[in-house]
Amino acid sequence: MTVHDPSPSPRGTSSTRALIVASIALFTDNLVVGLAVPVLPLLPSVVDAGPTWTGVLFASYAVAVVVSALVAGRFVDRYGPKTPLLIGMVGLAAATLLFATGGPYWLLLLARTAQGMSGGMSWVAALSLIAATTTFEKRGQQMGIAISMITLGVLIGPPLAGVMVEHFGTASPFLFAAAVALIDGVLRIILIKDSPRVADDTSGPFAVLRVPGSVSIVVAIVIGAAVMAGVEPVLPVHLNASALTIGLLFGLAALTGVIANPIVGSLVASVSSRILIGLGIVAVVASLLTVGVSTELWQTAIGMGLLGVSAALLHAPATTLISDQGFQAQPPTLGGSFSLYTLAYAVGLAGGPLLTGFAVEHAGFTTAMVIAAVILATLGAVSLRRLPVPTTVQSKGHDPRRGHRR
User: Fold this and answer.
1) Which of 35, 64, 153, 253 is an S-S bond match for 304, by CB 3.0 to 4.6 Å?
2) Is 387 in contact with 216 (CB distance < 8 Å)?
3) Residue 306: what pLDDT?
4) Residue 46 clears pLDDT 70, i.e. is over it
5) How far apart are CA 82 and CA 76, in angstroms?
6) What is the rounded distance in angstroms from the CA atom of residue 224 to the CA atom of residue 311?
7) Residue-wise pLDDT tens digits, 268-278
8) Per-residue confidence (pLDDT) for residue 127, from 0 to 100
9) What is the per-residue pLDDT for 310?
10) Domains of the chain (ranges, CATH numbers)
11) What is the spatial distance between Cα 102 and Cα 274, in angstroms, rounded to a whole number?
12) Rounded Cα gap, residues 53 and 360, in angstroms
């Protein structure tokens, strides 16, 4: 086995360039996802297919992300993140152009699957690029900024699509998205000077999962994804408010996440991850209980603001810790770390709505929020006990990458 030092060289891709490329890649991917959400159900071929097949169309994205993430991790370790980033860009541009055709349904399903495959590639490669070009002390803040760009893309996409459809037709958001993807691709080519890799003998996400403490990090990622995803399908029906009001409430949650992520990330190197993630779990409980018992709109708004903060407190430290776990895997893997991150995030996105939907149907909205809070708090409390201390902290500033030599 040949193990490579992924730390930045003087002539390599700087951490600033890596952050720019990764942030724009993550923003673009989630912007395109957000642009598609309000438009796809309006396309004639999707309307004709019916609600069940519309659900299949939307679910195909998550399935494709999971499959792609498993492949992308090994690809990143062996060849570095640059090639997967470019593959993701080409796939995203192609998918958006296929969406612009408006159908038939099977073509839209193919486009949605391609969108998920490119998204999985981009997520794993972008986060790996940041981890490969930063020390632990700076990694938390840069991961926080990158995660904020994910939230920003999701926040901007739907309202922008609505305006474009109203003025330019249903194809316009996808043509715009294809243009953004191509510009993003040019930046990836220009700014990434090299493609740091970890090992010729690659491992995957399950090798990282076997490292002591990884399960606890995965639980934190799942909770962070599940709490927002769980509220999304049930709150609008409970409030019975206008679409604008619902949009503003979720926009508030996204905005607080955008602001909080880099702040929490900057604290990762100096504040115990147990404290940050513990506060995140407290914020999850507080947000769900506040949303559940609120009788006034302003009270619900406070709960939604806490929701965004809770996700930042969980994801910023977890994203940083998972890269450290990858360096301890045998063989070392960055791609495997962020494959595991992406898989855990997907589990949260799927599990949150299942939990709250079932609980609301059988126990009502308020009780469902209490049940979700108790379950997530219990999972979080158990995971905190086994949360790892980063090797960089254990060895007083030593970066585990420095031990990997060509």
Assistant:
1) 253
2) yes
3) 94
4) yes
5) 8
6) 5
7) 888 888 999 99
8) 86
9) 93
10) 14-197 (1.20.1250.20), 198-390 (1.20.1250.20)
11) 48
12) 24
Give me 54's structure tokens.
Answer: 């519309």
DSSP 225-278: HHHHHHHTTTHHHHHT--HHHHHHHHHHHHHHHHHHHHHHHHHTTTS-HHHHHH
Contact between 208 and 332 (Cβ < 8 Å): no
Whether 72 contacts 84, CB under 8 Å: yes
Do 80 and 195 meet the contact criterion of CB atoms below 8 Å apart?
Answer: yes
Q: Does the pLDDT of residue 395 top 50, yes or no?
A: no
Give 316-366 pLDDT, tens digit per residue.
899 888 888 888 888 788 788 888 888 888 888 778 888 888 888 888 889
Structure tokens at 154: 């999701």
Name the packing angle between helices 273-293 and 214-231 (round to 10°). 20
* The two three-digit tokens of residue 161, written as one number: 């699509």
Report the helix count and the strand count for the chain, using DSSP H and E.
Answer: 16, 0
Q: What is the pLDDT of residue 21?
A: 86
Q: Find, among 186, 271, 287, 269, the residue nearest to 227 by Cα.
A: 287
Q: Is the dihedral of CA 399, 401, 404, 406 positive or negative?
A: negative
For the beta carbon of residue 201, count every other beta carbon within 10 angstroms. Answer: 14
Q: Which two tokens stand for residue 149?
A: 């760009």
Question: What is the Cα–Cα distance from 317 to 46, expressed in whole angstroms?
Answer: 40
pTM as predicted = 0.77
**Tens of pLDDT, residues 125-149:** 888 888 888 877 788 888 888 888 8
Report how far residue 7's alpha carbon sits from residue 297's, in angstroms, rounded to the nearest whole number: 49
User: Which pLDDT does position 285 carry in this prediction?
Assistant: 95
d(CA 185, CA 88): 9
